[in-house]
Amino acid sequence: MAEQQAEKASIQVIERMMSLLDVLADLPEPASLKVLAKTSGLHPSTAHRILAAMTSTALVERHEAGTYSLGIRLLELGNIVKSRIGIRQLALPYMQQLHEVVGEAVNLGIRHEDEIIYVERTSSGRSLVRVVYLVGGRAPLHLTSVGKLFLAADGVADVRAYARRTGLPGETPHSLTRIDALEKELDKIRRHEVAYDNEEAEVGLRCVAAPIRNDEGQLVAGLSISAPTDRHNPDWVTPIKATANQISQALGYRRPLRK
């Protein structure tokens, strides 16, 4: 009984720690203990105790003004995770080559449960649009071109289960928030092996994506080009599919021969 209570208490501490880290990640500036406690819903003494522990391990930095921000240790850990994602290292040279051709941002995304997480990106250097496609950024599958690739790889039952779980939330007037519209879009993706985001995640931003498969033919990532709507070029379909295919081949994928 005592062991179970101790385990429950430990899990609760971890949950509270993550709550504080999430708040710090959402705030653009260092925040006071009062703000962090109020936003996270924790008692100030509890928040202070956890912040002190995280400060001692450099997960959080405490400033002279008594405010807190995310610490350097998180950057170190993040870089370790990033370096261990093999597909990122393999894909980056191909992404850079594609970037030189199209002159716009090229993104590499992987699936994590019901979201896409972007693990690499080449910046266009001229887009002022605030995008979710920064490294580490994430978004619901149905709102992005890369996410739609993964939904298209699912069966009908899995897609409908995803819709029930998430409710298909929208971010813009263009977002696909109805299951019939989403299923129609996914049918097109299955036929053409290319997916689009037509200002569905962010107004003023369009994307086109192609699938990356491993040696077993499994969809493991998606490659996309994102650009402001007025710079989007429909001719990007050819180079994005070619580059995604090159990365797939480097992973050992061989397209089945047509019968």
TrEMBL record:
A single GO BP: negative regulation of DNA-templated transcription
PROSITE patterns per the UniProt record, alphabetical: HTH_ICLR, ICLR_ED
Gene3D superfamilies linked to this entry: 3.30.450.40, Winged helix-like DNA-binding domain superfamily/Winged helix DNA-binding domain
Residues in IclR-ED domain copies: 73-253
Entries under Pfam families matching the protein: HTH_IclR, IclR_C
Keyword line: DNA-binding, Transcription, Transcription regulation
Family matches, as PANTHER family: HELIX-TURN-HELIX TRANSCRIPTIONAL REGULATOR, ICLR FAMILY (PTHR30136), HTH-TYPE TRANSCRIPTIONAL REPRESSOR ALLR (PTHR30136:SF24)
Name of the protein described by the UniProt record: Transcriptional regulator, IclR family
Organism whose genome encodes this protein: Accumulibacter regalis
